[in-house]
Amino acid sequence: MGYIHIYCGDGKGKTTAAVGLAVRMAGSNGQAVMVRFLKNDDSGEVDCLRQIK
């Protein structure tokens, strides 16, 4: 069974929340897929994830 989490709206914290959930899933030997729709690719969380792939 899978779950879909959607984080949207103004303000900060959406990417951080999604990354935190994905890291928790990976830590439990699960799989996570992240899809982002952004105007730009300026995100510190994404830079960090790219380093640990």
Architecture overview:
This protein has helices at residues 14-27, 44-51. The termini are far apart. It has two helices and no strands. The chain is an all-alpha fold and 53 residues long.
Task: Please state the overall shape, judged from the principal axes of the Cα atoms.
Answer: globular
Helix content estimate:
40-55%
Oligomer: single chain
Give unreliable regions as ranges. Answer: none
The count of helical stretches stands at 2
Distance between the first and last residues' Cα: 25 Å
Features:
mainly alpha
Question: Which helices and strands appear, and what pairs or packs with what?
Answer:
Blueprint: H1 14-27, H2 44-51
Compact summary:
This protein is 42% helix and 0% strand. With 53 residues, it is an all-alpha fold.
